[in-house]
Amino acid sequence: MNHTAKYISELLYRYECVILPGFGAFLTKRQPAMIQESTHAFFPPQKIISFNSQLQNNDGLLANYIATAENISYTDAVAKIQRYVLSLRNKMANGKRLELDGIGSFYTSVEDTLQFEPSQDTNYLTEAFGLNSFISPSILREEKNITPQTVLPQVTRETYKEQVEAIEEITPIAFTPERRRERPYLKYAAVAAIGLIIGSLGLHQVNTQTNLANGRILVKAEEEIQNRIQEATFDITSPLPAINLNIIKTDAVTEEISENTNIEVVNASGKYHIVAGAFRIKRNANKKVQKLKSKGFDARLIGINKYGLHQVVYNTFEDRLEALEALQKIKKQQDRRAWLLIQK
């Protein structure tokens, strides 16, 4: 039994784009919580699924996941995906409606175009786990209006005076003079209070000194960690099994780059950057830029990240789909550790 649709559904919880090679890509977009005023319905935040039939190249994500889940080779996983896609296309050719559990359904329109209808039963946003939509009844508020005919009773000062005089005649109050007693224990209580105040001030001073010492230790440890970092390269891809490929090595032309080469940071238009690496030493970052430019990439430095590392990118794009296509090509032909950085 082919469980490819189930594997795609599991990957949609973790990724924004899952490609079914030879068929198309499933894309997700976050939608915030909303309220439908007409029906008083509340909907939690969720991921909206869309389909793009133009993205069909194999990026290895689905195949590697199937190979790990079923304990088979990568080649067998690719063959299994191809058989699944062939069965989908045969059903579509016969005019049948395709139903992918938890994902959505496909059908052919009157204009003979492929249409996708996402499923509303599954929420792929992990942050909204356990949140369901509900309908709240409308709240009715009662307003009490005071009409001009309503006359409130007026209580005057003379009325209160008469009531007080009547109470004094019935219940007389007598005052008996009494000698004030000395209370020596108040002196001891005052001395104890002063002692507690002095002790709390001393304890506060000790805590302040301790916090300052701990702060200095943390700053020193942070500086030590930063000094030990020489080069950092980030990989956001899932730890999937590696693909063993037989590559024929050719003679590479080594270019000597001067240590004094200084490449300035370029602010290019676009928020989608394909990152090649991040370096503690700027000279190493400049060498990486020159190397990528020699391969035909529009490489540049985009600045320093929060770790103090100089970031080098292959290229920068304004369109998200173009950036994803370029990332797939670079990971396949250049470096599988390349990743996509989105800067708003």
From TrEMBL:
Coiled coil: none annotated. GO terms for molecular function: peptidoglycan binding. PROSITE patterns: SPOR (PS51724). InterPro entries: HU-CCDC81_bac_1, HU-CCDC81_bac_2, SPOR-like_dom, SPOR-like_sf. Signal peptide: none annotated. Residues 266-343 form the SPOR domain. This is Sporulation related domain-containing protein. The lineage of its organism: Bacteria, Pseudomonadati, Bacteroidota, Flavobacteriia, Flavobacteriales.
